[in-house]
Design brief:
77% helix; mainly alpha
Length: 180
């Protein structure tokens, strides 16, 4: 039986706590916001397990300082993700801003790590940068103009954009053999 590390436990607790926010009286916008956040955290969970498999089984993460920095980024990532979950739909601009911060943290995490197949590493970094830029642009446009009524289309476009951008990564990871 494989042991569970602290970061995996933290993921489980944070994701589990987020489901306590769901109720039947939630506005549709909040349901979409929550659904997209869940999609992103599950994507990150798969990406995390991909990296951990490489790091633990192939012993490619060297240095305690690097491990500590990556763990701190994991904590920050989960804290930002949880803020995304608890933000009310009336503060949609902060939802967008937090997503750009979330993907920035993903870029930093990937760049600090080592020992990853170069093509996958660049693919993770490039897609996270594209998604981060997307959310910064949407945040700026949303903040400059009164687009409150366009929250639902923005979320739907964000989900579609995210899925299209992530398909090559999901495809490459799914072609690899490892246990999640």
């Amino acid at each position: 039986m494989e042991k569970i590390n602290f970061t995996e436990l933290l993921y489980s607790v944070v994701i589990g706590m987020s489901f306590l926010k769901i109720n039947l009286s939630m506005p549709f916008t909040s349901i979409l916001m929550f659904s997209f956040a869940i999609l992103v955290i599950f994507d990150d969970w798969i990406e995390y397990h991909y990296y951990i498999r490489i790091f633990l089984h192939e012993k490619k993460l060297n240095g305690n300082r690097k491990k500590l920095i990556l763990m701190i980024i994991d904590f920050l990532f989960l804290a930002v993700w949880y803020l995304i979950i608890i933000i009310p739909y009336s503060n949609f601009q902060y939802y967008l801003l937090l997503f750009s911060i979330l993907f920035f943290l993903g870029v930093v995490w990937t760049l600090i790590s080592e020992g990853i197949k170069k093509n996958i590493r660049h693919l993770f970094t490039e897609t996270d940068i594209l998604i981060m830029i997307y959310f910064i642009i949407v945040f700026l446009i949303y903040s400059m103009f009164d687009l409150f009524s366009l929250r639902i289309p923005i979320i739907i476009v964000s989900i579609i954009f995210f899925v299209i951008i992530r398909i090559p990564i999901w495809s490459d990871i799914s072609s690899q053999e490892f246990d999640i």
